[in-house]
Amino acid sequence: MSKALSSDSVRLGLLARIEAKPEHVKDVEELLTGALALAQEEAFTTVWFALRLGPTTFGIFDAFGSDEDRTAHLQGKIAAALMEQAPRLLAEAPEIVPVDVLAAKLA
């Protein structure tokens, strides 16, 4: 990482739950692992995780220092790629919930 993270840089987050169609689990996994490169391009996204929650269930957790940063992420390339592929790959629309980070251990 190029800069040290502080709790101020992860005040706000997004928690997304993504349910893949059973026949597209591998495609969703590849979409999410490939999105890491896009997340790394976003200086305003300070923390980004793609997760597997179950056989067909995935998640994304990311964190930001401000509402503006969170909004920019929601309007960015990762969200666009996910929404473009959603009708083909997903069993339902992604559930994306804004969250407040109460505490964080970053190092």
Describe the structure.
The chain is elongated. Strands 2-3-1-4 form a 4-stranded antiparallel sheet. It contains 3 helices and 4 strands. It has 107 residues and is of the alpha+beta class. Helix 1 packs antiparallel against helix 3.
Based on the model shown, name its key terms:
single chain; 107 residues; alpha+beta
Distance from N terminus to C terminus (CA atoms, Å) equals: 11 Å
Summarize the amount of helix as a percent range: 25-40%
Query: Helix-strand pattern, N to C?
Result: EHEEHHE
- Identify the strand order in the major beta sheet: 2-3-1-4
State the major sheet.
Answer: 4 strands, antiparallel
Strands, count: 4
| Global geometry | elongated
| Rg measurement, Å | 14 Å
Arithmetic mean pLDDT = 93
Per DSSP, what share of the residues sits in E-state strands of 2 or more residues?
A: 25-35%
Number of helices: 3
**Unreliable segments of 5+ consecutive residues:** none
Q: What structural category characterises the helix and strand content?
A: alpha+beta
